[in-house]
Specification:
By secondary structure, this protein is mainly alpha-helical. It contains 21 helices and four strands. Strands 1-4 form a two-stranded parallel sheet. Strands 2-3 form a two-stranded antiparallel sheet. Helix 1 crosses helix 4 and helix 3 crosses helix 21.
């Protein structure tokens, strides 16, 4: 069986199973939708309200964020598929018929996304003004910018001074590894350390060390949650088979290099920097442990990607989808079974528990700026003298729109829309591309 067929089978199974789980109320990817599902399961709201809420929360992110970022790298950002399977599962009717509809539509959407994304990339490459090479600049600032996030998270949690120390340590590491990071092993063989990866690692060490110094006051919020919502924890654990299967499929999809969990690891994967991408995904997973576990305990609904460490498994087992599937399924099984234990353990280190929120906030801040800068650079390459005008204009107008696009997406959307616009102007004889 050729690789393309395997990719389509894996993504079809992932899309189908995730849509079924959303329909059954077992797991949804959107963190905002998770607290709504218990209301539906307990008949406090109806199917129409659930479907409308799911669409409102997820559709804009799929169209405005997931797909544009995916086009820029030819790898699917997980938001593009799992947010849509949330919608499909929520809209499909109840009962066996709804499960069949969810599974079929989810599978078809997954296959269509893979084929359609490649078709769009191929189409753009055939345009008279080929702006695909310029689109690679959208993600360029992400790689180095990501190593800044630990310092930003520390600033939010512990103050400016500790953040400044962390930033200087990360910067020094960046300089040193760039200058001396190549180790000659002889016989023409050399190991080149990633300056950005090492800088991120140092920042994470500082971040975790500072967080572990925070002492608790004797309260046990997560332990209390577990005791109150024991029935909902048991509900998640009873669905371990479904969750293990999707965890394995996420890992297998990542191993095949057709799926990434966030724009940072997506960009690194597109450049062939697999170990750096795995480190970035691991850092993201740490930030998601408190959120995913706490919302799971309270709602009885999990995430099809768990705490997102299954992406790390997929990257570490790159090119081995079968082994990645087994390892990812095993990891998800452990996650589900350890749900209460890990939640209680977080109470022993309240600083680590609180660190999760600061990590996610810091990541979003860094991504927002990095994608905006990257979008501006790419737009200026597409249309010199016009690109910066276009990006700044779209950014400020978007803030005044009735239904603004999430700002994380402004950079990629601006670059893609400008590329399409200059092609239309070229056909009208109003634009001449600058020779590179």
């Amino acid at each position: 069986m050729d690789t393309k067929t395997i990719e389509l089978i894996v993504i079809a199974l992932l899309g189908g199973l995730c849509a079924i789980m959303a329909n059954k109320g077992i797991a949804v990817f959107n963190d905002g939708l998770r607290p709504i599902l218990p209301e539906y399961l307990e008949k406090k709201i109806g199917k129409k309200e659930l479907a409308a809420t799911s669409f409102a929360l997820s559709f804009g992110l799929v169209i405005g964020f997931g797909i544009p970022v995916s086009i820029g790298a030819s790898i699917i950002l997980v938001h593009s598929i799992l947010l849509m399977t949330d919608i499909i599962g929520s809209w499909a009717p109840e009962g066996k018929g709804g499960l069949v509809i969810s599974g079929l539509l989810g599978a078809l959407y997954g296959v269509g996304l893979v084929l359609g994304l490649q078709a769009v990339v191929d189409l753009f490459a055939q345009l008279p003004v080929n702006f695909m090479p310029a689109l690679s600049s959208v993600g360029a600032p992400i790689v180095v910018g990501f190593s800044i996030f630990p310092a930003i998270a520390i600033a939010d949690q512990h103050g400016f001074k500790k953040a400044a120390v962390t930033l200087l340590a990360s910067l020094l590491t960046l300089f040193v590894v760039k200058q001396f990071g190549t180790i000659d092993l002889g016989n023409g063989t050399a190991i080149k350390l990633s300056a950005e990866g090492m800088s991120l690692l140092i920042g994470m060490i500082f971040m975790i060390a500072f967080a572990m110094q925070v002492k608790g006051d004797g309260a046990s919020s997560n332990e209390t949650l577990v005791s109150i919502f024991l029935e909902r924890v048991n509900r998640i654990q009873s669905n371990w088979i479904w969750l293990s299967l999707t965890g394995g499929l996420v890992a297998a999809s990542t191993s095949l290099m057709i799926l990434a969990g966030d724009p940072i690891s997506l960009k690194l994967l597109s450049e062939g920097k697999v170990s750096e991408a795995a480190l970035a995904a691991f850092a993201r997973g740490i930030g998601f442990i408190p959120l995913v576990f706490s919302t799971a305990i309270v709602t009885g609904v999990y995430s099809p990607a768990g705490a997102t460490f299954v992406f790390v498994i997929g990257m570490l087992l790159s090119g081995n989808p079968l082994i990645a599937f087994i390892a990812g399924a095993g990891l998800m099984f452990v996650e589900v079974k350890m749900l209460a234990v890990v939640a209680k353990a977080l109470d022993r280190y309240p600083g680590v528990r609180e660190m999760g929120e600061h990590i996610r906030t810091a990541m979003n801040k860094v991504l927002e700026i990095a994608l905006l800068v990257g979008g501006a650079v790419a737009s200026e390459k597409i249309a010199p003298g016009i690109g910066y005008f276009w990006v700044i204009g779209l950014l400020l107008l978007n803030r005044k729109a009735n239904k603004p696009v999430v700002e994380l997406a402004i950079g990629p959307v601006a670059a893609i829309s400008l590329g399409i616009l200059v092609n239309l102007l070229f056909l009208l004889g109003l634009f001449t591309p600058v020779a590179s």
